[in-house]
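Message: I would value a second opinion on how I read folds in token form. Give me a protein, with the fold worked out from its sequence. Write it directly below this note and I will take it from there.
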Amino acid sequence: MFYLKHKEEKLNIGDDNVFTTCPICGKEHAVDLHELLAGGEADLFGTAVYCPACAERRFRDRKTAQSSKQEMARPTGRVLPFR
């Protein structure tokens, strides 16, 4: 069992009392440590967890950026003269 210690009092770590702040907007939000640690590569000091709104925004932005890259790489069917 893991716990926090504050003024000689043990504070249990549960699924309802672990929080962090979003690195983008600063909003405090709950974190599911089980989900975070499930991948086996978690570092609690070096891991940032985005709030749901910022995570969705980042996902949308990355998806849009990937679409733009694919669009730029798509062949046009035109042959350009060599200069």
User: Anything to note?
Assistant: Residues 63 and 69 are 10 Å apart (CA to CA). The longest strand covers residues 3-6. The chain has a mean pLDDT of 81.
